[in-house]
Specification:
The chain is an alpha+beta fold. It has a single domain, classed as NADH Oxidase (3-Layer(aba) Sandwich), CATH 3.40.109. The chain contains six helices and four strands, in the order ααβααβαβαβ. It has a four-stranded antiparallel beta sheet with strand order 1-2-4-3. The chain is globular and about 65 Å long. The structure holds flavin mononucleotide. Flavin mononucleotide binds near residues 14, 84, 91 and 143.
Amino acid sequence: MEVFEAMSTCRAMRYLKTDEVSTDLIEQVITAATWAPSPGNSQGRDFVIVTDKEKIRTIANSIEGSMAARVASMDRPDKSHRLMLDGTEYLLKSLKSCPVLIFVCGKPIYPYGSPRESFVWSSIYPAAQNLILAARALGLGTVFTTFQGVAEPTIRETLEIPDDILIGCMIPMGWPERKFGPLNREPYDSVAHLNSWKGELRVYPPAQD
Ligand SMILES: Cc1cc2nc3c(=O)[nH]c(=O)nc-3n(C[C@H](O)[C@H](O)[C@H](O)COP(=O)(O)O)c2cc1C
């Protein structure tokens, strides 16, 4: 799949089938994640991939137990909030039967000698986005999540993640139950500033008749 098509249709996929994902496909998305840049090419990130059903159930139950009531009580002021929060509720309920959970973790190693936490996040997120786009190109659905933070002690214990490793995000992955499609995003010319904050970027003026 062409990269622009993958990017422009890569919705957060919270509706995932329970069907297994082959090790070969998992290896492909993790390989793509390792191609991501990092500060000084320090590559201070690791991927903990969970396919063990019992471990997934333990982690999912812990997240659902802490998050479900909180999400159920959140306001849904418009359609996009409603769709997102309905999807999140569904994901919380179905996470226990998701075929793969991927935790993108980071090591505080950069700058060498006096590592700063901000550089850990700078290593985690490009890798996570590469992973998500590679999955999309292979037809797999994923969603960035940070709500795993509510279950961090359970996750650390279940997956034996050392205390000095930060857990950046959790990416559930599986075959999509819903369609990928166009994204709801601000147009580029409302966020791009050419040569100064007041500058406008219009590379492609409307064609003249
Ligand atoms: C850093 C980050 C954290 C996120 N955390 C969560 C989360 O905890 N739970 C969740 O359901 N979605 C989470 N999301 C997904 C966003 O809600 C989603 O990408 C955004 O609403 C755009 O949705 P769309 O890609 O379907 O257009 C997160 C996304 C990012 C980038």
